[in-house]
Amino acid sequence: MTDARLRYGRASLALSFLAQGVTFALLVTRIPAIQDRYGISDGLLPVFLAAVPVLAGVASVVTEKVVARVRPGVVLRWAQPVVMVALLGVGAGTEVWQVALALGVFGLAVGALDASMNMMGVSLQRAYGRSIMLGFHAAYSLGGIAGASMAWAGAHWHLSLLASYLPAVVVLLPAVLIGSRWYAEGRTAGDVVAPGRAQAASVPFRLLLPLCLVMAFAYIGDSTVSNWSAKYLQDVLGGSEQLATVPYNVYMVTTLLGRAVGDLGVRRFGAVAVVRGGSVLAAVGFGVVAVAPGAWWGMLGFTLLGLGLCVIVPQTFAAAGRMFPGASDVAVARLNVFNYVGFLVGSPLVGALGDAWSYRGAMLVPMVLVLATLLYARSFGAEPARYGGGHERARAADVG
Predict the structure, then answer these.
(1) Contacts for 40 with CB less than 8 Å, ≥ 6 apart
(2) Cα(27)–Cα(321) distance, integer angstroms
(3) Which residues fall within 8 angstroms of residue 262, CB to CB, at 6 or more apart?
(4) What angle do CA 106, 51, 44 make, to 5 degrees?
(5) DSSP string, 190-203
(6) How far is 132 from 147, CA to CA, in rounded Å?
(7) pLDDT tens sequence across 264-274
(8) What 8-state DSSP symbol labels residue 232?
(9) Which of 14, 6, 28, 4 is nearest to 230 (CA)?
(10) Residue 110 CB contacts under 8 Å (≥ 6 apart), including other chains
(11) What region holds the Major facilitator superfamily (MFS) profile domain (predicted)?
(12) Average pLDDT, integer, range 343-366
């Protein structure tokens, strides 16, 4: 593959990550407006919110099977427009069943999109021979900041959901469709695409499990910040309503900054050291949040959280690609499911502990889970798995 083809492929994939960051932020930051528009009760809202990651997890599993027959770039080329159209559906409906349908389609499409994007990122990183995965996730963070800003503007100007969503979709949908012409994967002549069954057999769950746990722990931490930072700063630390909107934005900005320089850290110090450092920094952030005497100390804790957590997820995908180079698509699809497991577990866990015990104490749970990443850090430097000739059998099956 030519250097130019790799560069174009990297740029087009970064655009897809950015577009997804915008789209997802537009959805999650307007959840109160969605609830008001459709008259969804407080009791029913968690069902709607849980359905999206559940369906996304299902779609990620299905994507594992699909990419045995078509390349991840084909899946991404179709999934991303569906996500954007589903977002418009969320804003355009008038009945509860309509928003339920739109969110269902969104969840299914976003699972396929997340899996295929990260498959391609892992493949391109392999071709580059150096860490570039954090850069893709930095583009996602940048998109998240842009999407959240658009959502703020829509709320500030009292725009309808459709009016808030439409400009982003009108700009980004043609852009990603055009950019998809340059999607590329970093496969070399030595890479053999085995049949789906052979690839699945070459990814034993016991070897992938440490990375799955790390992915879940990271997203438990991330969902804690996403769902509870505003309430925590206002209700527990005594911050103003206006100040309570700041921690998530600070978290996103520090996530962007950490990911923007993270690849340089991986190249200089190695993935294991970067993941260990990020885990410790995130745990310190949760600790500061838990004992903070006031709102500004809480802000410091959320800042440390963003800088620490941001490196873990991209490096988990990259580690799966290194561990299973002959079946990285399967490994990434399975690992991606634990993204949604962490998202589903994190927010209810913190809420339940906060109500039953205290929200300060609840912050110690994600702190301990993030620290547990240290137990599995060696998996981030693992050599390609060797286990009973799985790759050799896959190659033989392909040749045969």
Answers:
(1) 34, 48, 96, 99
(2) 30
(3) 131, 134, 138, 274, 310, 311, 314
(4) 120
(5) T-----HHHHHHTS
(6) 23
(7) 999 999 999 99
(8) I
(9) 28
(10) 20, 24, 52, 56, 59, 79, 83
(11) 208-400
(12) 91
Residue 61 has pLDDT above 80, yes or no: yes
Looking at 33-47, 121-135, 219-233, 380-394, which range is the least confident one?
380-394
Determine the 3-state secondary structure of 333 from DSSP: helix
Residue 26, pLDDT above cutoff 80: yes
Residue type, 167: P
Per-residue DSSP letters for 244-263? GGHHHHHHHHHHHHHHHHHH
Tokens for 39, please give them.
Answer: 């008259």
**Six-digit token pair at 244?**
């309570």
Q: Return the H-helix or E-strand segment holding 388.
A: none
Length of the chain: 400
Contact 8, 182 (CB under 8 A): yes
What per-residue confidence (pLDDT) applies to 396? 32
| Whole-number pLDDT of residue 166 | 97
d(CA 16, CA 77) in angstroms, rounded, equals 9
Give CA–CA dist 345/280, Å, rounded: 22
Query: Cβ distance 381 to 270 under 8 Å?
Result: yes
Distance (Å, whole) CA 215 – CA 211: 6
**pTM for the complete prediction?**
0.88
Measured at the CA of 192, the angle between CA 115 and CA 393, to 5 degrees, comes to 105
DSSP reduced 3-state for 268: helix
Q: Tokens 């709607």 correspond to what residue?
A: 48
Counting other chains too, the contacts that 372-375 makes at CB distance below 8 Å and 24 or more residues apart are 372/213, 372/217, 373/214, 373/217, 373/218, 373/275, 373/276, 373/279, 373/312, 374/276, 374/279, 374/280
Q: With the C-alpha atoms ordered 360, 362, 366, 367, is the resulting torsion angle positive or negative?
A: positive
Helices 295-309 + 246-269 axis angle, to 10: 40
CB 260 within 8 A of CB 138: yes
Proportion of the chain above pLDDT 70, given as a percent: 91
C-alpha 279/C-alpha 315 separation (Å) is 12
Instruction: Determine the pLDDT at residue 386.
Output: 53
In 3D space, the residue among 187, 210, 65 whose CA is nearest the CA of residue 120 turns out to be: 187
Q: Tokens 């954007």 identify what position?
A: 84
